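Review box. Two proteins, two foldings.
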Amino acid sequence: MLSVATSKVERLMNLVIALLSTHGYITAERIRNSVAGYGDSPSDEAFSRMFERDKNELRDLGIPLETGRVSSFDPTEGYRINRDSYALPDIELTPDEAAAVAVATKLWESPELVTATQGALLKLRAAGVDVDPDAGLSLSAPSGLPGLRGSEDVLGVLLPAINAGQAVQFPHRAGPTSPFTTRTVEPWGVVTMNGRWYLVGHDRDRDDTRTFRLSRIGAEVRPVGAAGEVHRPEGVDLRAIVARVVSEPATGVQAKVWVAAGRATSLRRIGTSVGPARLGGRDGEIIEVDTGPRGSLAREIAGHGADAVVLEPEALRQEVLTRLRAAAGEVVS
C-alpha cells in the first residue's frame, strides 16, 4: 500500500515539474512518453484513465492546470500550469510558521530531492520537450529562503525575540549607501511583500510604528530588556502597514474584463465581480480590476489568452492585443 502511494506522489510531482518547466502546451501523448510514471501504462485506455484522475487531483489541490492548442499550426489539445496563478501570494509568517518553512527549505535542498528534480528535467529534455529556463526550476539546489539571502542570521535573532515578546536593537540604514544608525524596536512580526522581507514594530527611538527591510538591518542584532515586555497591539494589520510603505498605490482607474467560467483565477483574485456574461458563446463573468502600474495588468490579462478579454478602457484593450499578436508572431516564426 505504501509503495502505491509513493508512486502516485512521485508521478504527480513529475507532472507538475513538466507542466511548470516547459514553453507552451504539452500534449497528453508527449506527457505519456516523457514524464516518469506514465510510460508503464499497459494500454491507451489505462493511461487515459490515470491521466484524467491526475488532472482532476491537481485541480482539486488548487493547481491552475490550463488547456490550449499546442501551436497555431497544431490544433491538438495540450496542457500547462499557469505559473502566475500557481505562485503563492505574499505571506506573513509567525515565528512557528517561519521555522516550518525553514525546515521545508532544508528538506528541498536535500540531495534526494535535488537529484529527483534534476532527473525529471533531464528526461524532459532528452524526450525533446522544450524546457523553459525561466520556469523557476533549477538544476542546482536553492540556497536559503526566497528574498532572504544574506539576512538569515538577522531573521534567526528576530523570530525568537518576537516569540518571546522582547525588544531588539540593531544597526539600520535607510538606503544601500546610507550610514547605519542604531535602532531599538519592539518587534511585532515579519512580513514578506514583493519578494522582500520586512520587520514591523514600534520604534522606541522615533516613538512610532516603523517598517524595516531585513536586507538593510546589520548583522549585529541583539535582544534587549526582559522577555514578555513587548505585546503586539490588538487588531494591528502588519500587511497593511507594510503595504502603505512599499506598495504602489492604486490608480483609481477601473478596467472591465470578461473572464471565462472557471478560468483566469489570478485575475478573479484581484478583481471584483460585476455579474455573469456570455462572450463568443462561452459562459463567464465581468470583473472590475484596478489598472495599476502601466503594463502589469496587460501582461497578466494577455497570459490568459482567450479566457480573458478586455472590454474597457480601449487603451488597455489595445495593449493586450499588441502583446497577443507579438506572442502569436513568435509561435509562427
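Next protein.
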Amino acid sequence: MADAAAVVGTVGALWRYPVKSMLGEQLPAAEVTERGLDGDRRLALVDRETGMIASAKTPRLWRRLLSCSATGEGDGGVRITDPDGKSRWSTDPDIDDALSAVVGREVALADRPPEHAALERSRPEQVLSEGLDAEVEADLVRFGSGSPDGTFFDFAPIHLITASTLRRITELHPDRTSDVRRYRPNIVVDTDGVGFVENDWYDRELRIGDTLTLRVIANTPRCAVPTLAHGALPRDTAALRTVAQHNRVPVVPGGGIEPCAGSYAQVVRPGRIRPGDPVRL
C-alpha cells in the first residue's frame, strides 16, 4: 500500500534528440543508461571558427537548427532532414557542407565534444527585450558538470517535465496551449492536477517501471529556446514570459533564482521504460 501511495504519475511520452538543438523524435520505448536515453544528443555541430558547440540557446547564431529534425535509425546512423524536406545521413561525406549552408556558418558534425567543450547561453530576458538578432550578453556553459564525460548534455543526461506543469503554463496563457515540444524533455510524466510540482522533487529519487531509478538534481532553468519557432510551431515569447512571471525559483537550494519548468536528473539505476510505466517518488 505504501508503494502505491508513492505513485505520482505515469510515463506519458518519451523523446530523444539525436542531434543537439535539432527537433527530435517520440519513442515507443527506450533503454536508459547513465548516458541518458539511448541515442540522445549523440551528435552536435561544432563551430569551426570558435570551437563552440552550436546551441539554439544562442538564437542569433543557431535558431535555424530548430528547423531541422533528426531521427536515429536501427543501424546506428542518424537521418537529418533540412527545412526544405531533404534528408541526409550523418555519415554522408558532404554533411558538414550541407549543414553549414543551413545555419550560415562553417560547422562540423561531431560525435564527441572537443576538449574543454562549451557553448554560449544568451541571457533569455535580453533576448526577449532586444530581439533574436541582437548581440546580447551570454553565459559560458561548460560540459560535464552533471553528465558523464564525452556527452553533449548541457548539464544532466535526463530532462523531465510533468503534465501538471504544462497545464499550469497553459492556464496562465490560455490563448495558446503549451506545446511540450518547446521544452524539449526526455520524459513527460502524466500527473494529476495543475502546478509546478517538480519544484518539490529536488534530491529525491524517481523509480520508473520496474528498474529505472533517477535522482533529481536541479530544477530546469529556461533559456530562450521555448520561445523560438520549432519547425511548424511559430515563435511564442509567452512560453518563457509565463514561467518567468510565475515560477522564478532556485535552480538548486541556495542557488540562483531563474524561471524554471521541469527537472534535471541523473541515472542511479539503468532500465528500460515505456509510456504507461508508473512513476514513483
